[in-house]
From TrEMBL:
Tagged with keyword Oxidoreductase: yes
Residue ranges of every copy of the Flavodoxin-like fold domain listed in the record: 1-215
Family note: Belongs to the NAD(P)H dehydrogenase (quinone) family.
Protein name (database record): NAD(P)H quinone oxidoreductase
UniProt GO cellular component terms: cytosol
GO molecular-function terms, A-Z: NAD(P)H dehydrogenase (quinone) activity
Keywords, alphabetical: Oxidoreductase
InterPro entries xrefs: Flavodoxin_fold, Flavoprotein-like_sf, NAD(P)H_dehydrogenase_qn
Keyword Oxidoreductase assigned: yes
Amino acid sequence: MNVLVVYAHPEPRSLNGSIKNFIVQRLEHAGHTVQVSDLYAMQWKSALDPQDNRSPTLGARFDPSLDSQQAFVNGTQSIDIEQEQNKLLWADTVILQFPLWWYSMPAILKGWVDRVYAYGFAYGVGEHSDTHWGDRFGEGLLAGKRAMLVVTAGGWSSHYEPRGINGPINDILFPIQHGILFYPGFDVLPPHVIYRTGKIDAAAFAKVCDELGQRLDTLWTTAPIAFRKQNAGDYCIPQLTLRPELAQGEAGFGIHVSHPDENKLSQHRVTVEQSDLMHAEQTR
């Protein structure tokens, strides 16, 4: 398998640097091909700006989306953007590895997303109609590929539990997992989070590697998070709100993850609709 690791930490000798090295070694030892986008080492330009189009319309007002679309369609994107897009197309699985800084990813990694996720590549694709609202949230150019976050956090795991002061870790990571990875089509695996990073000594690091190694060994068999696909029937279109019979009385990020018992409800709805249709045909 081809694995792309997008890595964001400024210090190679850091815990994150050691984890990145372990990821590469473990995957290559298992026979996989690995590429690493080490954003700090690459001196990645974070800001999306007019320079990302090598042939902009002279004198035109800069529009981030339209300029991105023009550059993608015309083949005039900045070379570094094209290279990262090619890596994404090459990869079977993408791992985003980063420290949790201020409840999100480092700015350099967000800048990678802003620039690489071009209009026509990661968004702005697919038809818009009464039944289909673009190829996104489970569909898109990156559908069929897998993705996983490997995240380090300084706090205790209890700080990120449902009643923890920081809020649930799945809520904190939702904009990344659902909004950045699932949006263009990735099957998103549960995240691997390493807590209390300031307290990890040599013995603890061995445990970190053992637990992470188990996740890496099962990258292709682990069930992805059951995010609801936008165009699969769970949402009203074009309102893009969850159907009223699903997750009744609930709100928040969790409603966008389906539950096993809902499959029976969904199948029942389809059966009833088919039965109603057959009855209508028979009574004509």
